[in-house]
Amino acid sequence: MQRTSKNPQLHARTFRSMGTVVSLTVASTGATETAVDEVESAVDVVEGIFAQLDLTFSLYRAGSEASRLGRGELTLASASEEMQELYVEAAGWRLATDGAFTAERPDGGLDLSGIVKAHAIREAALSLNALGLSDWCINAGGDVLVSGSPEPEKTGAGSDAPWLAGIADPADRQALLGAYPLQTMSALATSGSAERGEHIWTIGSDKPEFTQVSVAAPDIVTADILATAIVAGGTHALDQAVEKWGVEVLAVRRDGTLLATPGFRNAA
Questions:
Q1: DSSP code per residue over 14-76
Q2: Hey, what CATH class is 162-268 in?
């Protein structure tokens, strides 16, 4: 006989991909054994999506399509449809952000690593929805996308129980600056130099104005792209992102002071 639960249960699994830890958490109120089986199947699907995209886009794998492009063994015109489509999407974001986001390195080489992780999360979300799962959270190295609620029964009864996304303190990776409730804004992405060093190409300065930027947006690609663009473009890019896309932003300046839009201030 299967055990059922009146209270929502959170089932979480993790795996490593694209140089980071990816976690999937699913909320369920159904039979415990059934819920566990569903989560295991979902993780297999999500992990497969990340693994396949990593095989294609990783610049650390000598045999990947991205590495072959970088060495000149393959041209973009003869690359896979997926590679071409992601390049077109990235190029569109470069125009939209006035060059603050770019998929080209300073030496002119193609580098889609700034969009591929968010793309993987986006693809994983489509698969989770296709599996019939409606209450889940994907976290890939601090880039978070959610659906539904961690307390689906309470939500159905009128509760607003949102998923909460923690934002690490760049000065102390063991501490949090706060937690943002993901509801209308279902995605949150964080970019900066605190964890990975100075890896973002800045505009007009050797060092970025912000050491860390978190962006909450309705979709994960917009959140991730704009977080990177604001680190690269500073206050001008931040103002543009808020005005043009209506996102919420929490930015940490080099001296440790915070710059927050109303959504983040109200969440504190």
A1: EEEETTEEEEEEEEE-S-HHHHHHHHHHHHHHHHHHHHHHHHHH-SSSTTSHHHHHHTTSS-G
A2: alpha beta
Domain ranges of the chain: 1-161, 162-268
Q: Would you give per-residue pLDDT tens digits along the chain (268 residues)?
A: 344 445 668 999 999 999 999 999 999 866 666 678 889 999 999 999 999 999 999 999 999 999 999 999 999 999 999 999 999 999 999 999 999 999 988 888 899 999 999 999 999 999 999 999 999 999 999 999 999 999 987 655 445 689 999 999 999 988 999 999 999 999 999 998 655 444 455 555 567 899 999 999 999 999 999 999 999 999 999 999 999 999 999 999 999 999 999 999 888 6
Tell me the whole-structure pTM to 2 decimals: 0.90
- Tell me the residue type at 114: G
- The CA radius of gyration of the chain, in Å to the nearest whole number, is 19
Same CATH fold, 162-268 and 1-161?
Answer: yes
Which class is 1-161 in CATH?
A: alpha beta
Exposure string of 27-52, with b = 16+ CB inside 10 Å and e = fewer, is bbbeeeeebeebbeebbeebbebbee
